[in-house]
Amino acid sequence: MMRHGLVLLTFCAALIGCAVAPAQERRPIAWDGLGHDPNRVSSRAAITKRRAVNPAPAQDDPNQEREKVLGTLRPYSEAWWAVHDEIEAENDRQLGTKLVICPRCVRQPSPDEDVTGSIR
After folding, report:
1. Radius of gyration of the chain (CA)
2. Of 68, 104, 102, whose CA–CA distance to 87 is shortest?
3. pLDDT tens-digit profile of 5-55?
4. 3-class SS at 14?
5. How far apart are CA 18 and CA 90, in angstroms?
6. Nearest Cα to 70, choosing from 87, 92, 95, 90?
7. DSSP annotation string for 52-82
8. Measured between alpha carbons, how far is 70 from 91 in angstroms, rounded to an integer?
9. φ and ψ at residue 28, rounded to 5 degrees
10. DSSP state for residue 20 in the 8-state scheme
């Protein structure tokens, strides 16, 4: 019985030592990238500021007007598909301006190699 009490006392002392350690001395927690980062201190001011920011004006997002028009059209009609394709084309154009692929990263096939597009 004395041995169990000693083990319990040691365990409790270890837990108390972890609980009272200052935040600066705590080691960072390994984070898998999903959910909230436990190592990042949340700031209430940053959250409030983020909510207070106005949405982007229409001139910054050309698709904003198109999406309003898309909402008024009958789904999957010819006009709906035309506006939908314009929205997708604009999204692809915006992505193309942001996406940069290193020329060394893309391997060009040699002229004598048969290119089929299959996965090797």
Report:
1. 29
2. 68
3. 778 878 777 767 655 555 555 666 777 777 777 777 766 655 555 555 555
4. helix
5. 54
6. 87
7. HSPPPPTTT-THHHHHHHHHHSPTTSHHHHH
8. 15
9. -65, 150
10. T
